[in-house]
Specification:
Elements: H1 2-33, H2 55-78, E1 84-88, H3 95-101, E2 108-112, E3 129-134, H4 142-155, E4 158-166, H5 172-183, H6 197-205, E5 211-216, H7 217-223, H8 226-233, H9 241-248, E6 251-259, H10 267-270, H11 273-278
Helix pairs in contact: 1-2, 2-7, 2-9, 7-9
Binding site for S-adenosyl-L-methionine: 64, 89, 134
Keywords: Methyltransferase, S-adenosyl-L-methionine, Transferase
EC number: 2.1.1.233
Length: 279
Amino acid sequence: MASRQAFTDSDTADEAVRATCDDATLSKRFATSKGYWKDLYIQYFARSVGERKAPEINRGYYARVKGVNHLLDAFIRKTECDCQVINVGAGLDTTFWRLKEENLLPRKYFEVDFPTVVARKIHNIKLPTVFVSECVLVYMSPTHSSNLVRWASEMFHTAMFISYEQVNMSDRFGQVMIENLQHRHCTLAGVQVCQSLDSQKERFLKAGWEHADALDMMTVYGMLPQEDVERIERLEFLDEKELLQQLLQHYSICWATKDKLNLGNHTFNKQYTYTFKSV
């Protein structure tokens, strides 16, 4: 009986995590419908715009998409597309088609997720590789996420791992986020690693990555091209700017690199703005 209950609880938890895929897709669909960024393909995965999202949510997704894309595109350009992308927990992400449209398609592109979401499987190859993980590692225990990033470090010698997820989760705002997710049967098993930017970096450095750095999304938002930021800020009136600041301060982008082929990937870690100047 106990084992059956454990299986049921595990299945419920998995279903709750899978539901976050739809949440992200609908949020991106709404933001693109308001003009925050262009995505010609997301309409095929979320056919309706859905319920209205708050301006701070739209701006948060704008910062997330722009921040991850800048690092991803910079890596691909650095390798002249002679690389592969492994999107961990890809869900209904449309990055593959965006890269194809912009002539930035890598040699290989893999997506990994639950079998019901994505059927592909990763093959073990050693071309230059960039891993992308958006709000995935946080649902894994620190041991499991460390094993994953250690495996990636050991198997891929010229690589980048881009991780977007929560940070600064030990304060009251972070605790409220955790409680809200728990009410939806979503347990952040890896929240321990999300205590600070340093703890995010340490996960990769302890797993064998040569360099690692991290920025909270409020910092990233401030680094985005101001002309475009001013454009999206005119789309909707934001009443509580402090709420946006709190939200962005509790998400981060962390990136780690290994560079056996001496492509210069370590320069990404010196200064995040490098990528904006070089793309």
